[in-house]
Amino acid sequence: MSSLGELRSLALGRRGRGPKLKEKTPDNKAAYLFLAPWILGIATFTIGPMLASLYLSFTDYNLLKSPIDDPPPFVGLDNYAFMLQDPSFWNAFRVTVTYVIVSVPLQLAVALGLALLLDKGMRGLPLYRSIFYLPSLLGGSVAIAILWRQVFGKDGIFNGFLAIFGIDGPGWIGHPDYALGTIIILHVWTFGSPMVIFLAGLRQVPEMFYEAAAMDGAGRIRRFVNITLPLLTPIIFFNLVLQIIFAFQTFTQAYVVSGGTGGPADSTMFYTLFLYRTGFLQYDMGYASAMAWFLLIVIAAFTAFNFWLSKFWVFYDD
């Protein structure tokens, strides 16, 4: 016993005085080699243009002039100051924020409702899931936006349906009170992507929670409110952040449905559409770059606010 204790003490003593083994540095050359095309691409096509647009936002840059042969004059914060006084800018901002606030919650509600329906394990579930996901693949396409004009036009399918009941519907796309609503409906219709994410989240809820609640006499509504919703809050938060970002960047639907004009009385003049018209039709790329950075700040602010607010309603299973 004593010899064993002496050996242990000797080993512990040598451990502190002995030379430390040098850790082998991992060789990441192969990883960097495979990442090189992606790093080169993001630096060339993403970071580079972003930094260039940041510089151009402080200049009076005309798109028809070469910035190399004829450098744009530096104007400081003039573009941002003009932005705050531009009524067209604030109209586009108001239209976009209204679109985001109305369309995103409606889309998530529809997506969650259909996910709950598909979670019941009905026959042919993969087929239904594919059919419901299809609008998300086509909703941002030009073809669907053109189809939307045919559905909600004066002589469109929707007015044909109303005519069956003796209702003479207006030209929904051409009316300033209804034009934005038609694009909101189009956004809600593209519920497939958040629906699939909700469905995956529902499959992760342990069945034992429902069984215990049922034994205590909880009905379906109470189980949904007290079990399903709290456990789904991380998924709801994830979908909410993503869909807000996507909604702020909506362009194709607004451009095609309104014919690129912003709709009647600029009722569908989305922020991105106004930015496009300023930069590529009026050639005022300096002002357009300033608007792009303002939009980035707004999206970042909405995202940060959602992350701060999430600590009050998002529950994680620790």
What does this structure look like?
This protein is mainly α. It has a single domain (78-313), classed as MetI-like fold, CATH 1.10.3720.10. It contains 14 helices and no strands. It has helices spanning 2-17, 29-56, 78-85, 87-118, 125-138, 142-152, 157-163, 179-189, 192-202, 207-215, 220-248, 252-257, 271-281, 285-313. The longest helix has 32 residues, at 87-118. The radius of gyration is 28 Å and the shape is globular. The relative contact order is 0.12.
Could you outline the blueprint of secondary structure elements for this entry?
Elements: H1 2-17, H2 29-56, H3 78-85, H4 87-118, H5 125-138, H6 142-152, H7 157-163, H8 179-189, H9 192-202, H10 207-215, H11 220-248, H12 252-257, H13 271-281, H14 285-313
Helix pairs in contact: 4-8, 4-9, 4-11, 4-13, 5-9, 9-11, 11-14, 13-14
Q: Return the average pLDDT rounded to an integer.
A: 84
DSSP E strands, number: 0
Task: Identify the CATH homologous superfamily.
Answer: MetI-like
Helical content, roughly?
Answer: 55-70%
- Could you say what the CATH topology is called? MetI-like fold
Q: What is the C-level CATH assignment?
A: Mainly Alpha
Strand content: under 5%
Unreliable runs: none
If helices are DSSP runs of H or I spanning 4 or more residues, what is the number of helices? 14
Determine the N-to-C terminus distance: 46 Å
CATH architecture: Orthogonal Bundle
The class by helix and strand makeup works out as mainly alpha
